[in-house]
From TrEMBL:
Keywords: Membrane, Transmembrane, Transmembrane helix. The lineage of its organism: Eukaryota, Viridiplantae, Streptophyta, Embryophyta, Tracheophyta. It comes from Iris pallida (Sweet iris). This is Beta-1,4-mannosyl-glycoprotein 4-beta-N-acetylglucosaminyltransferase-like. GO terms for cellular component: membrane. GO terms for molecular function: beta-1,4-mannosylglycoprotein 4-beta-N-acetylglucosaminyltransferase activity. The keyword Membrane applies. The chain crosses the membrane at residues 21-41. One of its GO terms (biological process) is N-acetylglucosamine metabolic process. Signal peptide: none annotated.
Length: 363
């Protein structure tokens, strides 16, 4: 196709007639376009996600009913279920990295309703970095639940060649949880929660699972998603945690296992750490560690600024499957001033958990 200048396109006389001009222009323009694409490849490909990626199949969401001081009998009835004569036993199984504060919040939230807390931790991250056993190091903080906790350790080899594919290492952790489960005394019909430590179901959700007959054998738990603290609510996109009536085929997983999801069943607080040091560790450790593209990403002053502004730690665009959602979510997360409907332990100990509450972004 012949090149036409904008002026020519508008029917205006050409100002320049030198034929070397377009060649020169493309010599400068083309490389700079290529460099730009190279530098911003991730951003551009994320922006174009609605074109190259298909969204997961939508879930069939069970409406969730709850208000204070309503009888469990009535709550079961509203879901189309019936009250049992005795509660089911509930087992809570998590893979733990370094979310010590959130684990404490989790165990206090769930303690009265849980038969056993299974927790697996490793002396190596998914990316092969040696790591301290943070649960063991902080065991004092979990004395209140000791009798219910079953702790397992996954020991990864020191050989870095072993850690080429972080998602595979993550898979090995999950099978280690399966063997912990086999030793836990869990029986068919018991409830098993599969979640990461920072995916916290609410008490009343567990009560419902415990006391109602007729619940689906496997369902995902829809959690309110927060980033950095409860001051930054993102959306309701967290779906990976799940609740199972344990059976012979139950396998510990953190992926799609059912099309059914119970709405608004708790909280998922990502990167909700007390200190910047913990942010840096998590950024280097988690399955998407390749997103740390330069060491400046790990500077404490930068991280602090990002936290207080509700921006993205990795300078990434949101993962969305439609342009409408993507553009809606671009930019900083608006701050919330609500500390209503949060885990009780955070409110009871608001002074200790200031960093999780509105106005507490300074670490
Ligand atoms: C809770 O419900 C009971 C009866 O179901 C009622 O007697 C009591 O006053 C209620 N408490 C509150 C705080 O509303
Ligand atoms: C993890 O612990 C095991 C057993 O103590 C040890 O052999 C291994 O080298 C440790 N891994 C790392 C990465 O330190």
């Amino acid at each position: 196709m012949a090149r036409r200048s904008p002026r020519a396109a508008l029917g205006l006389p050409r100002r320049f007639s030198t034929s070397s001009k377009p060649v020169l222009l493309s010599l400068i323009l083309l490389p700079s376009i290529i460099v730009t694409i190279f530098l911003h490849f991730r951003k551009i490909s994320y922006f174009l996600r609605p074109i190259w990626d298909t969204p997961p199949l939508p879930f069939n969401r069970i409406p969730h009913y709850y208000a204070e001081n309503i009888s469990t009998d009535h709550l079961c009835f509203l879901h189309g279920w019936t009250l049992r004569s005795s509660p089911r036993r509930v087992f809570d199984a998590v893979i733990f990295s370094n979310e010590v504060d959130l684990l404490e919040v989790r165990y206090h939230e769930l303690l009265p309703y849980i038969h056993k807390f299974l927790i697996l931790e490793s002396n190596v991250t998914f990316t092969g970095m040696p790591k301290p056993l943070s649960f063991v190091d902080n065991a004092d903080r979990f004395k209140f639940a000791t009798s219910k906790i079953m702790h397992g350790t996954f020991t990864g080899p020191a050989d870095p060649g072993f850690y080429k594919v972080p998602f595979q290492i993550e898979g090995m952790h999950r099978s280690a949880v399966n063997s912990l489960l086999r030793d836990s005394g869990i029986l068919p019909g018991d409830i098993l929660i599969m979640a990461d430590a920072d995916e916290i179901p609410s008490r009343h959700t567990i009560r419902l699972l415990q006391w109602c007959d007729g619940i689906p054998p496997v369902m995902h738990l829809e959690l309110r998603h927060y980033l950095y603290s409860f001051e930054f609510p993102v959306d309701y996109s967290s779906w990976r945690s799940s609740a199972h009536q344990f059976g012979p085929l139950t396998q510990y997983r953190h992926s799609r296992q059912s099309d059914i999801m119970l709405a608004d069943a708790g909280w998922h607080c990502s990167f909700c750490f007390r200190s910047i040091k913990e942010f840096v560790f998590k950024m280097k450790a988690y399955s998407h560690a390749d997103r740390v593209r330069s060491s400046s990403y790990l500077e404490h002053s930068r991280i602090q600024k990002v936290i207080c502004q509700g921006d993205d730690l990795f300078d990434m665009l949101p993962e969305e499957f439609s342009f409408r959602e993507l553009i809606w979510k671009m930019g900083s997360i608006p701050k919330s001033a609500s500390a209503v409907n949060l885990p009780s332990y955070v409110i009871e100990n608001a002074d200790r958990f200031r960093f999780l509450l509105p106005g507490g972004c300074l670490r």
